[in-house]
Write a structure and sequence with these properties.
By secondary structure, this protein is of the alpha/beta class. The protein contains 5 helices and 8 strands. It starts with 26 loop residues before the first strand and ends with a helix.
Length: 258
């Protein structure tokens, strides 16, 4: 037969304060809608005052002697109170207990992987239950599980604090680690500083490479200018030789005519 799931009973609603005619005491201490203390009045007089001002008479301190009532708009008060509760729940962080399991005969690289996973969960704000599972005759050596848990906790680098010591339940030994906000913040600051230093080194290397490339380009440009100048000099010399040869030919022409 299929078992039926047991339903969780709903949470009881908090008791609502008594208002107006539900306040059944002979006299009350009255605070008006402006926040001023009026004094001790009979319940009927306080209720008449509330009706004249078009507000409600709300019992705010029923255990006082006499009980304290306040004149207010109860509907508006409930709306503002529910709005505040929603805002408070919105900013409230729910802490969950996550579990990371391992075996006594775990390799070192697996321990490093599990440790990084636990650190990540702690940085997210969750509690972590670290469990060592024993199989077969491994249960006869619980000290191995305890030493493994101590090793993993030492490798957390200040990410968590020990909330529950190692305890053996059946074939499982576990500890509970809570996030250490100060340690996590210090670790994150150190990582940010390390990343900034690496970025500065990369920027310096890039700037150095750019400056060296610019120097090489300038050197190449200077060499090209020198080559162009030398080519111009060679062209000038060749033009001079052509002019000299023409002069020699003109000088030889009279002799040939003779």
């Amino acid at each position: 037969m299929r078992k039926r799931r047991t339903r969780v009973p709903p949470k009881p609603t908090p008791p609502q304060p008594r208002i107006n005619e539900r306040v059944r005491v002979p006299s009350v201490r009255v605070i008006d809608d402006k926040g001023h203390q009026v004094g001790v009045l009979s319940t009927d007089e306080a209720l008449s005052m509330a009706r004249e001002r078009n507000v409600d008479m709300v019992e705010v301190s029923p255990k006082a002697d006499p009980p304290v009532v306040r004149l207010m708009d109860f509907g508006r008060f409930k709306f503002e109170q529910s709005k505040k509760d929603r805002e408070a729940r919105k900013h409230q962080q729910k802490v969950q207990i996550r579990e990371v399991r391992m075996k006594p005969k775990i390799e070192d690289h697996d321990i490093d992987f599990k440790t990084r996973t636990i650190q990540k969960l702690l940085r997210q704000g969750d509690k972590v239950k670290i469990t060592v599972m024993f199989r077969g005759r491994e249960i006869t050596h619980p000290q191995l599980g305890k030493s493994l848990l101590e090793k993993v906790f030492d490798n957390l680098e200040g990410h968590g604090t020990l909330e529950k010591n190692a305890s053996l339940e059946g074939r499982r030994m576990s500890i509970v680690v809570a996030p250490d906000k100060r340690g996590i913040a210090a670790y994150q600051r150190a990582q940010e500083a390390k990343a900034a230093a690496e970025n500065a080194e990369v920027t310096a290397e890039v700037a150095e490479n750019v400056s060296s490339e610019e120097a090489i380009n300038q050197h190449d440009d200077a060499a090209d200018e020198v080559n162009v100048a030398s080519d111009n000099v060679v062209e000038d010399d060749s033009s001079d030789e052509v002019v000299d040869s023409q002069d020699e030919e003109s000088a030889e022409e009279p002799g040939d005519s003779e």
